[in-house]
Amino acid sequence: MNDRWIADRMSRIDASGIRKAFEMAGAMKNPVDLSIGMPYFDVDDAIKDAACEAIRSGRNQYSVTMGLPELRETIRGSIAHYGHADREVIVTSGTAGALMLAIAATVNPGEEVIVFDPYFVMYQHQTTLAGGTTVVVDTYPDFRLDMARVAAAITPRTKAIVVNSPNNPTGVVASAEELKGLATLCKERGILLISDEVYGSLVHDAAFHSPAEWNEDVLVVDGYSKAFGMTGWRLGFAHGPSWIIQEMAKLQQFTFVCAPTPLQQGVARAIAGGTLDFADQVAAYRRKRDMVIEALDGLYELARPDGAFYAFPKAPWGTASEFCAEAIRRELLVIPGNVFSRRDTHFRISYAASDDTLRRGLDILRGLAKGK
């Protein structure tokens, strides 16, 4: 092995702790897996059929870099309520692809990107790849957005702020007041606000809001993977000011090229058919969320998760890493909070699992809290 072949930047990027958990699950005999954030429900048959039809009919070549016109028009229709004069759309290879394009197209070496702790694991490492520096704003203990903390973190080098609601890993949904404050602050300070809204369709009790409601320059990244159960299809999109989207398209030409054409076609045709209804899936996630809240009540400190399919309880003893290690010894896989945070106090539960798996996992967690 020749270490000189590896770029220096790679020493600042760790392998995902989530993927490590996934590998551990494969080595366990009978794991109770509440670790990976993958939808429990399969892709709707209407979408599968439309994608298969596109493949069989020969729609297997590259699409234009920006994405199939019919899919982009569908997305434009879904965001028309913002009323922005300049809001362009690009289809990407997953929401992760949209985030990578957004950060690479906007962040210069030495510039800062503010993220909220706890945060999705990609934000920090994508910023590193762009040569930027991640600045963390703490949101413990209730995981709410504090504008005074945000303002104090802004420096002359601040280029962008990334916000994620509903949040991964906490499941907390930011309020309209919080997002309006953030959108207004960014507008006043000339800072790009990137809003990761991939869980926006999975909201339980709270109302979903986008900061784009109050700031026409917000760049939104979104996708179909979580709502449609198609994480492996790699279909995401972004919308924002055309001058940013065009730069992202330039990068996509020389990286991902385009999102998978027949899968774009499948989603576009299925949505246009108007027969898709995911109310049952959302209701099932809410019921599973309620199972988590009820089972952990009185035993764990837990900020109420109102969206996505995650909960982020505080470990009742020890560090989160120590607690999760004991959980693994009992065949339960959950993710320690230091994968998502500068702190090691909480752990993430994904309740996107069968009811039986979830009940088994919650029973183990109750036993762990009681010392059994």
What is the structure about, briefly put?
This protein has 372 residues and is an alpha/beta fold. The chain contains 13 helices and 12 strands.
Features:
seven-stranded mixed beta sheet, three-stranded antiparallel beta sheet, alpha/beta, 372 residues, globular
Provide structural commentary.
Helix 2 packs across helix 10. With 372 residues, the protein is an alpha/beta fold. Helices cover 40% and strands 14% of the residues. It is built from 13 helices and 12 strands. The protein starts with 16 loop residues before the first helix and ends with a helix.
Q: What does the secondary structure layout of this molecule look like, with pairings?
A:
Blueprint: H1 17-27, E1 32-33, H2 45-56, H3 69-79, E2 88-92, H4 94-106, E3 112-117, H5 122-129, E4 133-138, H6 147-153, E5 158-164, H7 176-189, E6 192-196, E7 219-223, H8 225-228, E8 236-240, H9 242-253, H10 261-273, H11 279-296, E9 310-311, H12 320-329, E10 332-333, E11 335-336, E12 347-350, H13 355-370
Parallel strand pairs: 1-10, 3-4, 3-5, 5-6, 6-7
Antiparallel strand pairs: 2-8, 7-8, 9-12, 11-12
Helix pairs in contact: 2-10, 4-5, 4-9, 11-13
